[in-house]
């Protein structure tokens, strides 16, 4: 196991030699012949003890999982951070709610459309719930276009009025893109001249970029995905499962008590 520990910790041949000898080593201290000999010894050991490589790979995978888990917990634990408090997001429901549900969605996501009635029901049934909408356009150019329009619409419509825009657009049939998003915005009385100017603003895609960074930190790759009580939930899991976790947050502050 000594070689295993060295292989995991060492960043170079010199570091491996230092693991074996306990003495400082630098590349300049070894001749070409010595480096070849050391390489041969290590190669021979690994050939005759291949399980060491498997152990090293398992240790590296476990280390990566721990790093990813720590990064995820840092994001979900920061109530004042961009996951829960961002100028680019839209909050629906009670702004002083005891429980917050964050949804990463795409306007062209079939499963997001299927989850929409569940979210509407949750908001209706729980007056102490806040829904945070995170536009995560992963399904092509049309989704990005719709997200850009929605981001500009938020400058004019907030709360229940934006929820009306959101549900109309997400609940529509067929592909959703710029034209469809603009049509819904116009139907709801949005100032179209202002909307077009806002869509051309320097930070017009700031929200999309921010959400992409959050998704990367949370290892979210698809939609819909939810964050509730510091737990990430992937997929359209349905009303009952989301309500169970929300009720747990009300009760003990965590998705599972």
What does this structure look like?
With 257 residues, this protein is α+β, with helices and mostly antiparallel strands. The protein has two domains: 2-69, no CATH class; 90-252, 3-Layer(aba) Sandwich (Glutaredoxin). The protein is 57% helix and 10% strand. It has eleven helices and five strands. The chain has helices at 2-9, 13-21, 32-48, 51-77, 110-125, 141-153, 160-170, 178-187, 192-199, 206-218, 239-252, and strands spanning 90-93, 99-105, 129-135, 225-228, 231-234. Strands 1-3-2-4-5 form a five-stranded mixed sheet. It is elongated, with a radius of gyration of 26 Å. Mean pLDDT is 86; it is low at 1-13 and 20-24.
Q: How many distinct helices?
A: 11
Q: What percent of residues are in strands?
A: 5-15%
Shape, principal axes of CA atoms: elongated
Structure summary, number of beta strands: 5
CATH architecture of the largest domain: 3-Layer(aba) Sandwich
Strand order within the widest sheet?
Answer: 1-3-2-4-5
**Sheet of most strands:** 5 strands, mixed
What's the Cα radius of gyration? Answer: 26 Å
Judged by helices, strands and strand pairing, the structural class is: alpha+beta
Q: Which segments are poorly predicted (pLDDT under 50) over 5 or more consecutive residues? A: 1-13, 20-24
Distance between the termini: 40 Å
Helix content: 55-70%
Mean pLDDT: 86
CATH topology grouping of the largest domain: Glutaredoxin
Number of domains: 2
């Amino acid at each position: 196991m000594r070689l295993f520990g060295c292989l995991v910790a060492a960043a170079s041949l010199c570091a491996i030699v230092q693991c074996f000898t306990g003495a400082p080593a630098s590349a300049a201290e070894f001749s070409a012949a010595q480096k070849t000999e050391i390489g041969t010894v290590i190669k021979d050991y690994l050939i005759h003890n291949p399980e060491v490589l498997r152990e090293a790979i398992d240790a590296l995978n476990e280390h990566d999982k721990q790093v990813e888990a720590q990064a995820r917990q840092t994001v979900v634990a920061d109530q004042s951070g961009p996951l829960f408090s961002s100028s680019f997001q839209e909050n629906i429901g009670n702004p002083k709610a005891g429980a917050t549900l964050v949804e990463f969605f795409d306007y062209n996501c079939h499963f997001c459309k299927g989850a929409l009635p569940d979210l509407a029901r949750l908001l209706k049934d729980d007056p102490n719930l806040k829904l945070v909408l995170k536009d995560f356009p992963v399904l092509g150019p049309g989704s990005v276009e719709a997200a850009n329009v929605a981001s500009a619409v938020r400058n004019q419509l907030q709360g229940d009025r934006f929820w009306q825009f959101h549900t109309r657009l997400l609940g529509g049939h067929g592909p959703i893109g710029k034209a469809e998003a603009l049509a819904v915005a116009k139907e709801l009385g949005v100032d179209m001249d202002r909307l077009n100017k806002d869509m051309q603003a320097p930070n017009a895609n700031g929200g999309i970029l921010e959400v992409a960074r959050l998704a990367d930190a949370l290892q979210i790759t698809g939609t819909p995905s939810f964050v509730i009580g510091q737990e990430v939930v992937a997929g359209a899991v349905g009303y009952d499962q989301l309500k169970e976790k929300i009720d747990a947050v009300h009760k003990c502050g965590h998705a599972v008590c």
